[in-house]
UniProtKB/TrEMBL annotation:
It holds the Pfam family CCG. It comes from Chryseolinea lacunae. InterPro entries: Cys_rich_dom. This is (Fe-S)-binding protein. Residues 3-84, 127-221 form the Cysteine-rich domain. It comes from the Bacteria.
């Protein structure tokens, strides 16, 4: 199995430890991992702002960098969904189509391809799980609470395998944090209020850490936590699954 890791630009620039944890975790699980060194932004910020037509060069470069792999694994639900739904390349559309079908979010890959049932990770803390909208509603990593059907959560399944970790209950298990990419810039007040409400739910149940599969959402929550001088921290799920 030849697997490439796709590291979002904000992870590369602000949270490199998440990329490192993703690499180390996959290697611990016996995966041969490759990192295309010329990878850049996938173009999601332009597309989210209504300028998808300006992301053509990002698309072409992505296809150039990530062609020829069995799977492409990314520690970000939003970036994964963007590639899965929007990647096209006029010069090599068959390659783009192959990439759209093989790109996977990290927890999706661990559960659906590697079928992980055991982990050696150890993280003795009370943790709240934030299930981001793109991962939940776009990639179907977990069940939406408004649907009357059996519940499931791929991130929660993996966290339940971590020794010492206490996964806290939440009153609203799939509420948006308010980040929404450029939404947090265009609608700052609404975005912050949504973030405060999301944090309050976690704090009410005693979370020491808030985790999730999208560092962008966690970055938004981290900013609010810091301004509140809270001792609760954010941590990407890859860091927990790789802990110990």
């Amino acid at each position: 199995m030849k697997v490439a890791i796709f590291i979002p630009c904000y992870v590369d620039q602000f949270y490199p430890q998440v990329g490192i944890a993703t690499l180390e975790l996959l290697e611990k699980l016996g995966v041969s991992v490759f990192y295309p060194e010329k990878q850049t932004c996938c173009g999601q910020p332009m597309a989210n702002s209504g300028f998808e037509h300006l992301a053509t060069s990002c698309n072409d470069l992505f296809v150039e960098n990530f062609s020829g792999y069995d799977y492409i694994v990314c520690p970000s639900g939003s970036c994964t969904l963007h590639i899965k739904d929007h990647l096209h390349a006029s010069a090599n559309e068959p390659a783009a189509e192959k990439i759209r079908s093989t790109v996977m979010e990290l927890t999706e890959f661990l559960t659906d391809v590697l079928h992980i049932k055991n982990l050696t990770a150890h993280f003795p803390h009370k943790v709240g799980l934030h299930q981001s909208c793109h991962g939940q509603r776009g990639l179907h990593l977990s069940q939406m609470s408004e649907l009357v059907s059996p519940g499931f959560s791929k991130p929660q399944h993996l966290l339940n395998l971590v020794q010492g970790l206490e996964l806290i209950p939440l009153d609203r298990t799939d509420e948006c944090c308010g980040f929404g990419g450029t939404f947090c810039v265009a609608e700052e007040a609404v975005s912050v209020k949504m973030g405060k409400d999301r944090i309050a739910d976690h704090l009410h149940h005693g979370a020491e850490y808030i985790t999730g599969g999208d560092m962008s959402c966690l970055m938004h929550l981290e900013g609010i936590l810091r301004r509140q001088r809270s001792t609760t921290k954010v941590i990407h799920i890859a860091e927990i699954l790789n802990a110990g």
